[in-house]
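Morning. Coffee machine broken again, so started the prediction first thing and wrote up yesterday's gels while waiting. Chain of 86 residues, entered below exactly as on the submission form.
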Amino acid sequence: MGVVLERHLAQVCANHNVKITKKNPTIADFNEALKLANVIDIPIWRGITRLGDLRNLCDHNKDREPTIDEVDDLISGADKLLKTLF
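Came back before lunch.
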């Protein structure tokens, strides 16, 4: 789901002509660029930050595994963004 979210944010940046200069941008890079360009507001930015944190918890070796609720939050949150953020 993290890759889907990352691709979608890249497309949103392209749709709004928000330039990303980093060679391999992350969810956080897209999120920050969209906020700075006033495409998204602070509450949406915070939500995407949380989804990025959950994605990292799921994908990287951390001290703990994500909970079922956290995985559900990542899936439902990404699904909502795909439907509402263009």
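The radius of gyration is 13 Å. Going to sketch it on the whiteboard this afternoon.
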